Amino acid sequence: MSKEKIYIFDTTLRDGAQTEGVDFSLDDKVKIASSLSTIGVDFIEGGWPGANPTDTNFFNQPPKLESKIVAFGMTKRSGRSCENDPGISSIINAKVDHACIVGKSWDYHVDIALGITNEENLENIKDTTKYFVKNNKEFMFDAEHFFDGYKNNKDYALSCIKSAYDNGARWIVLCDTNGGTLPNEISEIVSEVAKVIPNDHLGIHAHNDTGNAVANSLAAILAGARQVQGTLNGLGERCGNANLVSIIPTLVLKKTFNSKFDTNINHSNLKQLTNCSRLLDEILNKTSNKHAPYVGASAFAHKGGLHVSAIQKDPKTYEHIEPDLIGNERSIVVSDQAGRSNILSRLEKLNIKINKDDPKVQEILDEVKDREFTGYSYDGADASFELLTRRLLGEVPNYVQIKNYEVKIVKGTNKKNINSVAKACLIVDGKEILCEGEGNGPVNALDQAIRSNLNKVGKYSEFLKDLRLVDYKVRILNTGTNATTRVSIESSDDRGKNWFTIGVSPNIIEASFKALLDSIDYKLFKENAPSSSN
Q1: Whole-number Å distance between alpha carbons of 40 and 8
Q2: What's the pLDDT tens digit per position in 121-160?
């Protein structure tokens, strides 16, 4: 028996752009659309031509992609013809062949929001549909508030979608606009609608206000919908939209769906999913959700010793899929809950060869647990963990010694003029180097003092010139005047490599200083810099 196709419709650039604080540039839109097309998404809703300059420019010269670009808009206004409605004209003139038009299907909204009669709304849907079909645009009707409308007035909600379908609409998309419908309700209603609208013309557009948007979308597919709409990472106003990053791999990899349905997304393209998800976060300048299903950095992270031991025997013991199927990777966390299995797995990943019975393994494990008792956490500080391990194994050379340092916060007569000044005495090759630096904070000043002078030391200058500190986080581990502070620093270089280091101390400057030195030592070690003859 042949499988039915499920069409993937992404609305990140339109519905996702309605998220508070999100404002895509034209270049952003093109980058996101290109990434989505690489995966194999069928439709990409680019925005609303005529609504703003960015969307208008996007549709004046839409990117040439494998995916079909869709223009969004709304049904014509009452009292006007389609020919004389500026909103309709903008979509007709857009240089794309597909249009998704939203219209009311809840009689309550017809009355309250539009202020027209139910019959006028049906006429608007009918006339708009016929006009787009006449102008050779593949027409999709987004039935706004459909599920609430169906529950309030079933006959009228059905008459709205029939008005579009009977006049040539290719797709009827049922929208849970308020996001309050539950999966069992979705299944029941979509099953009933499928008796009126054929499955291969039926779509679902779910919002996440009860946290059920993905479940609702999957339930709708099983009940008859063959187009599913959503956004990357569930982006969208209020609580967001259905998350395509969860829906897509479920459709492709899970037997419940892949035994019945095909998509345009093959296993090779699916490997781009994690990168696509993180690209959006990068464009939005936000930290990716580590615990996101499928693509999160912690989605395949294992911490408990028993779990890790089982994973090493067979990953299926604690993983529902292989992480590389969606471009993610397995991570073994080293913590105070770690056992020897965790340590051995991490050492293997770092390409550190050691016999599993070597006493050094237990020594490393004990050191990790002792340090975590004092406040260290190596969950997200791979560079510091590698340095700790290699130091215990005697593999890290001695690069720089810090004899002493001093940091001052200086406030000038101008209240806005606050400077940080740092001094340090370094020892390299047995020689003392006096360093000074200024910065917009004590850590920046220390960084400037140490690195600017190390750069003057010929043997290290070429290795540190591209070192950058890109993030700095502080966490107070307990309260009171003797609180312990944990500092995490993210560093990068011109090769695009990022690494994370950590420092802990009751003094925030000392904690920062430890993390900073680890960052420098890690860079020098990875670059095979020569040791210091201190």
Answers
A1: 9
A2: 999 999 999 999 999 999 999 999 999 999 999 999 999 9
